[in-house]
Amino acid sequence: MNNKAKMRILVTGASGFIGASVIQVLCNQGFQVCCLVRSTSNIQRIEHLNWQRFEGDTLDYNSVVKAMRGCDGIIHLAGTSDWNKISSKDMWSSIVNGTKNVFKAAKSEGCRRAVFVSSMSAVNGSNSPELMNETTPCSLPKNEPAFEYVRAKQTSEKNCLGLSDNNFKVIIVNPPETYGPNDINLITAKNLIDLYSSKPTLVPKGGSLIGHVDDVAQGIVAAYVKGRAGERYILGGENTDFFNLVTTLFNILEEDRRIIVVPTFLMRTLTKICVKLNLTLPYNPIIIPYATRYWYFDTSKASKELGIEFRNLRETLKPTVAWLKEAGLINTRR
User: Fold this and answer.
1) How far apart are the first and last CA of the chain?
2) pTM greater than 0.85
3) Going from the N-terminus, what domains does the chain have, and what CATH number goes with each?
4) Which of 42, 90, 293, 297 is the most exposed place for a label (fewest CB within 10 A)?
């Protein structure tokens, strides 16, 4: 894949938080970039870049085929990422059915390579801070409604890999909890806003792999260029518990705050009671099954095979916080 200027690649979800960074990387590397976007998509993050627009939706197979014609490959990011829809039927349809359409069209149109952007949550989460990797068996409870998102991503991974062969190479990437500037839809930035707004600040006893959006985008494109077919690559960053994440946030903001770590059982129980009684919470209750677990991963496979260096927690949060302040989404006393 040395002559990237002659390579035509379709990207779905291009106007999204991670997608916009992927488009920037592809343009910087000289790819011919096509984007499947809805007529209503907010393209402000990518409108200054050089790409060809195709209007459509991943649930509309014909529009996907039209956009795919003449493309050498596909990077598929599109799919519901709204926390409020994470256990809905719309979410399942968006991720599973949309992905089926995209990969069916890609194979029928003769694409050679494809990257499905999954999630680290599709691998596994644990009740204690243990380091997992791409091959760790999933032990998440199957009856937890919030994990319908996990099941949708897992199902799509299997469906995509089932289409992989010598003529159509499929690679899976599993991004971490991703932060960075220009998160205009507040996909993860809302977490920082909520943490800053709560006094005292309550944090669950859990943790996560944290990554910077630009590093994740570099990893996705690197997976397309040189990832091995049939393989998963976990992308990110730094593993950190949520107490350290919040401490780092306030340290960047130069504020001394009281932080209280709430035991897992208490956090889950209080959340269930408040939801049942329709009481207002300073956080979205749907995140608790995720926030009260550890999503710690060994990312050495991506670093070694894809050649990506990932920023640490502070290097990731600092520009994110600067953007939040500039946008007026965090108003400090200083």
Assistant:
1) 50
2) yes
3) 4-182+209-238+296-313 (3.40.50.720)
4) 90
